[in-house]
Amino acid sequence: MDFFSSMNVSSSALSAGRTRMNLISSNLANANATRTPEGGPYKRKDAVFAATPVDSPFNRALDGATAQQVRKVEVSEIVEDRNPPRLQYDPGHPDANPQGYVAMPNVNVVEEMTDMISATRSYEANVTAVQAAKSMALKTLEIGR
Hints:
elongated, about 45% helix, 4 strands
């Protein structure tokens, strides 16, 4: 893998990680939103990642020579969680049904915080990979001195 391919892979992972963190933040911010423009409570959103080949001259030259192909990550789609809203008994709430239950978002705060920790660790790992690639490129340039 050449220098630019490694930077391309890491930068795509950083971008996908940022999207994931934005979705987690949105889920947490709307954990108590009982009304949306579409109607009903907020629905949890999640990113679906897909691995796509990196196109570079180096990879094309090695096509078929190795069993592994360099791949970057992309957000292929953003999906809404299909789990039903949780019902909470609150007869005084303006959105309560005739039985006194309010349809609350299907957001589990503990699960979202766990996802946030995982996304943060992944982001940190990719920043470290970018720094390592940059350091190797600088060391390579020092050889010529």
